[in-house]
Amino acid sequence: MGKILVTGATGNVGRHVVSQLADAGLAVRALVRDPGRARLPVEMAQGDLTVPETLHPALEDVESVFLLWPGFTADGAAEVVEAIAKHARRVVYLSANVPDEPVTHYHEIERLIRHSGTAWTFLRPGGFAVNTLGWAGQIRQGVVRWPYGQASRSLIHEKDIAAVAVHVLTSGGHSGATYVLTGPEQLTQAEQVRVIGEVTGREVRWEDQAPDEAREQLMAAWGDPAFVEDALRAWEGLVTVPEPVTGTVERLLGRPALTFRQWAEDHVSDFR
Ligand SMILES: NC(=O)c1ccc[n+]([C@@H]2O[C@H](COP(=O)([O-])OP(=O)(O)OC[C@H]3O[C@@H](n4cnc5c(N)ncnc54)[C@H](OP(=O)(O)O)[C@@H]3O)[C@@H](O)[C@H]2O)c1
User: Fold this and answer.
1) What tens digit of pLDDT does each residue of 3-33 get?
2) For ligand 1, mutation pick of 94, 106, 122 (most atoms within 8 Å of CB)
3) Cβ of 123 below 6 Å from ligand 1
4) Atom of ligand 1 minimally distant from the CA of 48
5) Within a 10 A sphere around the Cβ of 219, how many other Cβ atoms?
6) In whole angstroms, what is the distance from residue 24 CA to residue 8 CA?
7) pTM
């Protein structure tokens, strides 16, 4: 099997893609912006997805690419997809399970890849369990004040996204497939906090925050009104229509998707 280039190799998902491919004895190259800082057990190539010309040396002799896109717009993605299609035969793109409207950078990048001439598979995960690390500070204080405690999600362990990526990169029959990936169960945000409390042995309670108060705080933290409104609208919607559970991880991997409790157990030290 030819060499696999992993982008986002130091991130939540990519670092597991790298280690799982390396454990399987496959030829892996990690694209990193700063090889001095990235501690990875595989060959590294310096490159930046926002500087497409840096990608050609990294793509030399590469058969497949695991691609994530770090930006919130698709600016510059056309050149990157073109460079990948010039060198590699297959791309597995870490997209997202978002509605068809409004059109986002995920749709735009999928469209670019579809038209690039290279074989492709799209992974569309829902919410990442690792997003709940954003509550770590409040969990240490014993109370999480956040809006929409009854918003329910089927959060996925980053290891499962990586395992699916590795499966797709190393087996046939996935060309042109789009996989919607979720965890195995729905948990409300308040239940997620309860599980984290149980697993970490901390007394922690949920306190529903009024959306207007949350809007103010999130604006101060994120600075982008559209982003804040989208997030609040999404959580509100998840109260009445919980994020669905798909059996795709189990169907592809032949074992159940990891639970949120298993995710929390893997991250106990991050909540210390
Ligand atoms: N969080 C969610 O709920 C969710 C849901 C669906 C999809 N997603 C998508 O998942 C992706 C994030 O995955 P993740 O959580 O594994 O990533 P992450 O932990 O946020 O890490 C980002 C990675 O991208 C690399 N990177 C950042 N800017 C780069 C650049 N200009 N050129 C090359 N590499 C760059 C970083 O490398 P260095 O900083 O080390 O250089 C790092 O390895 C995003 O595309 C996001 O939209 C997220």
Assistant:
1) 999 999 999 999 999 999 999 999 999 999 9
2) 94
3) no
4) 32
5) 14
6) 19
7) 0.97
